[in-house]
Structure formats: structure tokens, C-alpha cells
Amino acid sequence: MASIQKNISSSYTMRKSKSQNFFSRHIGRVILYLLLIFGAALALLPFYWMISTSLMTLGETINRKWLPAVPQLVNYVNAWKEADFAKYFINSVIITFTTIAGIMTTSTLAGYAFGRIKFFGRDVLFAILLSTMMIPESITLLPNLMLIRGNIFPLPGGSWMNTLQGLTVPFMANAFSIFLLRQFFSQIPSELWDAARIDGSGHFRFLLQIVLPISKAPLMTVLLFAFTGSWNAFAWPLLVTTRNTWRPIMVGLWTFVSEAGPETHLLMAGAVISLLPILVVYFITQKQFTEGIATTGLKG
Amino acid sequence: MTATSLKTSSGKYSSKRRMLKENLTAYLFIFPAFLVIGVFGLFPIGYSIYMSLYQWRVRQGDFIGLKNYSDILGDGTGLLIFLLGFGLLILAYFLWNSAFKNGSMLAKSGKLIAAIILISAGIVISLGWKQMIAGGDEDFLNSMIVTVFYALGSVPLQLALALILAYILFQNIRGKELFRMIFFLPYVTPVVTTAVVFRIIFSPRETSLANILIGKLGIEPLKWLFEPKTVTELLFGLKDLNGLLSGPSLALITIILFGVWTFVGYNTVIFLAGLGGISKEIYEAAEIDGANSWDLFRYVTVPLLSPITFYLFLISFIGTFKAFNHIYVMKVPNAQKTVVTASVHIFQKFYTENNFSAAATEAIILFLIILGLTFAQNKILGERVFYG
């Protein structure tokens, strides 16, 4: 019924506007598409420039051409092998997976506790947790650097400079992920928990066997945020890696900027390598990705 | 008897024990997260405050109280005058608002008073600022101005573009999903990578993409990221303007362009979600009343989106105060201090100058400003949600 009404009203407006201003409507539409295409071109232009430069010879990057005569795939081989991008890339993969494992563990446990268990001081602790979202990195970098060096109190295993734990442990928990999962976990009907409890299940088993399997969407969002956050990290790894043992790809790319000098084709090949994993994940999970950001963005 | 009473007493006993067990489980569950956040998120704030009270260059020195703060902000009178000016600004805002709510006669005089207060607030603020610069750390205070330039340059522009794009995409557009994906791409790609690419695109070479493009418009090649001169100087040869009047340098404008390019897509996606929340009936009702598409945009879409616009505005504004990575990557020595925002300044203070106490003090000041902005965000968002 309602849909019929809608159809009638929309066909009414269409007919009205068609008879009134057929041409202006079409011109308006063309302008809209032109605007969109112009915007899309601006959004894509840097990517085009990056990829085309990455396939050029050194000469072609200097006497600027729009396209390389012959695509120089060898640039990628050179960047991968000689400019250490292979090492940086593998470092980044290990760092990212370690951080993700940490974030998923801490935030599912804490999100579950805040969402489903009544305990003493819960609201106060949650408020403290939320307030940490406002803390800017500028204020934490220096004290954390001193912490990692072992300047403030001794750490297990001495200084954590240039180590995997130094790069990952500080990022293994964040308020945002906990908040996101808590919101979802707290909406799970309590009948499920009652049933599980009658079957003799505790919180931990309930979390593992019931809650996690039905929470794929929010877990995926947390995972995507953790992945991009860790892969894109820059300021902290710049401080913590003085040698290239554990240097991640973003810092490697940055150091290559100063070392590469005029070799922009290799630099751009490195840039393409550095964003490939993110782009692959983005294209696979596109819908989830955008909607995750839209909904979480709106909730704040 | 006793089957039931036994049951209840054991139930009571077990419920108490269960309470204890629940509490223990919960604390066990939140412990790992709170350990990490406590050590690497909360502890640094306390430690920064502690450091800011000492002389501290790599190693801890003497306790010097608030001297670090007065070294940066001046002796306090400047700051007081500056804050007084800010108070006047807020007063003017409230007067202006209440003037709109009241009747016509009151409204006019209220607006007049508000305007006078606004002008005097401007004078007081600039007086206080001059006093602060005279007594405090000019470099840090200038980095604040650079930060404000960056925020005012990028946020309104990116929001306006995003609103337009979202509005267009919300019409029945073919390939809507594809366009949304393309606009979102710059936001998704790692910021260090794209900043490195922008360094190449906006390099001062004659054959850089930016110079090729403006060359097609008949403009001489520019130095872009390497240009410390302000736009007013480049265009009109005005040299002696200083402070807020001179405007951002071309290098900073290039960074602003990068910010706009990166964040338009994000804001578009949020606006699109907001547009989806406006009911179709309102549009249909307005159309039947004879509204054209501009009317629909101006009198239906914009007001109904205003809560989201406010939210995005303040989130982005706070974001520009936190921004570090791309500015640090696109910063070249030739641009001098015109691209050094507050967060970059703080980083350099301890990373290259080893002046730990100054860095800690400046970080606390920046943190307080961000806290103030967040507070304002909550306050304004609480009040100014406009429904039709």
C-alpha cells in the first residue's frame, strides 16, 4: 500500500518535472556527473602519478612524461631487494599481526566484562577508559620513549628499543576497540547467557563459544581498524627503531626519501609496495570497511 | 521441610560467592587492557606533568616549579588578557544567540552590543597575544598560529566539498558505489605513503605534476612545499605583515591541500550516512509545496544535517591539532617554521633538541587546548541539535 503511494507520488513529481523543464533537468544531470568525474579524477591523480612514475626510467622521471615508454617492472625488483623494502615489508607484517592479536585479545575480554558482567566500579572504570580517547600522541610519545628505553623503571629484558615488543606492546589495547565491542556485546539477549549458565558454562566459555561466533561484524571492524592503525603507524616506530632490524615499512619509506635523492622511480615503487596490503584489504572488505567507519563515526 | 529452605540458603550462599566470582572474572578480563592503557596511555600524562616541573634535558635536573610554563607562555599577564578576550568572545556568542530568540527591538540592540563586544574581544586577544610573545617562547606560540591556519584552511573547505559530493551521490546516480569507493581511497591509503607522493607531486622542479598543471594555466612554476613566503607576499608583495594577518605560507597551503584531499572522502561517507537518515517524506512534502532542488538542499538538507556537520567540524578541528605524520613527512627545511605545527614543534623539541622539559610542558598545553575543544564539542553538540 505504502509502496504504491510512493510510486504514485514519485511518478507524479517525475511527470511534472519532465513536462516543465526537461532540458534543464538533463543539463543538471550532466553537470552532476561532470562534477563527480572531475572529483574522482582529482582523487585518483596522485595514484596515477605514483604508479606511472614507479614504472619509469630515471631519465623519464626527469624529462617528465605522462607514461613510461616501456614499463620498468625492474624498479620494483630493485626497491624490493636493494632498497631493503623486502625487510621493511616483512617487519611490518610481523608487527601488524602481533599488534592485532594483542588488540583482539584485550578488547574482546574487556569489552565482554564491560558489556555483560556487573562488577564493582564498572562505570567509573569505563569513564576513565573513554577519557583516554582524547589523549593526543604528542603527550605520550616522550614518556613512552623513556619507558621503552628503561629510563623510568627497569623492563623485563632490558631496553625495548629496536625490539618487537617495543613496537607492539604499547598499542595492544585501546579504548575505541573496547567501546565498540562493548556496545555490541551488551545487546546480546540475556536468554543466551541464562541458557549457557544452566548448561554449566562460565563467562570465558560463553564468550568463546557463543558470543564471538555471533559478533563477526564488530570483530571485523575492530580488526580492520587495528590493521590500518598498525600498518600506518609512523611517529612511534620512527622513535623506537634506530637500526633497521625491526624498522617497519612506513619508516623505511621515510628514510628512503632522504637517501633516494633523485631516484624518484624507486621511491614511488616503494610507495606502491607500502600501500598494497591496505588496498587489497580495502577492496576485499570494501562494504564492511566503509560502513564500519560510517557507523562508528556517527556514534563518536 | 527442608528441601526448599536448604535450597534457598544454599542459593543465598552461592549467590554471594557468585558475586565475588563475577567481580574477580571481570577484573581478570579487563586487567590486560588496563595494564597496557594504564602504562602507555595514562602514566605518560602524569609523568609529563612531573617532567614539566623540572629542568630536564635528557637527564633530570633541578626542580624549577612553573618556570617552564612561564618560559613558554610569558609571565601570565599576557595569558590572562588573552583568556579574557576569549571570554568576551563567548559572551558575544551567547548575546548574539539570545538576540535571535528574543523580539525584534531587543534583537537589534542585542546584536549591536554583541558586535561591539566581538570587536573588543578581538583587540583584547591580540593585545594579550603580543604580551605573550614578548615574554614567552615565540617559536611555540607561532606554531600555534600555524596550527590554527592549518585547521581553518582545511576543515571548512573539506566539509563544504564533502557535503556537495555527498548530496550529489545521494541523488539517483549511476555508479554511486564506484564513486564512493574512489573518494574514500585517499583516506584509506597510508598517510605516510600519500604524503611522500605529494612531496614528489609538489616538488619545486619544473617537471613536477603541480607545476605542469599550473603551467597549462599559464602560471610560472612555483616552489610549493619549499616556499616559506606567504600567499599575500607572493601575490601582492606585502612583506611586513606578521602574525595572523600575513596568512599561511605556500608550503602550508600545499599541506592544507593534502589534508583536504585526504579527508574529503571520510566526511563524504559520514554525510552520506546522515543523508540516509533523513526521511523521504520531508522531501516529498517540500516538493509538493513547490520547492526546487536548491530549496530542498538549502532548507531541508542543510538544517537536518547540522548536527552531523557540527560533529564533523569539531572532530576535524581537534584532528588538525593532533595531526603529525603527514606534516612531518611533507616538511622540508626550506619552508622554515611556516609549516611547523604545534605537534611537530613538540616532537622536534625532544627528538632533535633533547629539551625534554620544554617538550613535556608544551605537550601539556596542547593537551589542555584539545581538552577544551572536546569540552566545547560536547557542550555545543548538546545544545545545538537542530531538528527542522
Description:
The complex is a heterodimer of chains A (300) and B (388). Chain A has 300 residues and is mainly α. Helices cover 76% and strands 0% of the residues of chain A. Chain A has 15 helices and no strands. In chain A, helix 4 packs antiparallel against helix 11 and helix 11 crosses helix 15. The radius of gyration of chain A is 26 Å and the shape is globular. By secondary structure, chain B is mostly helical. In chain B, strands 1-2 form a two-stranded antiparallel sheet. In chain B, helix 5 packs antiparallel against helix 12, helix 10 packs across helix 12 and helix 12 packs antiparallel against helix 15. The longest helix of chain B has 51 residues. Chain B is globular. Classes of the chains: A mainly alpha (300), B mainly alpha (388). At the A-B interface, helix 1, helix 4, helix 5, helix 6 and helix 11 of A face helix 1, helix 5, helix 6, helix 7 and helix 10 of B.
Shape of chain A: globular
Number of distinct beta strands of chain A: 0
Please, what is the oligomeric state?
A: heterodimer
Helix content bin of chain A: over 70%
**Largest sheet geometry of chain A:** none
Q: Give me the Rg of chain A, rounded.
A: 26 Å
Average predicted local confidence, pLDDT of chain A:
87
Helical fraction of chain B equals over 70%
Please, how many helices of chain B? 15
Report how far the terminal alpha carbons of chain B are from each other.
67 Å
Shape call of chain B: globular
The greatest inter-chain interface is formed by: A-B, 94 and 93 residues
Structural class of chain A: mainly alpha
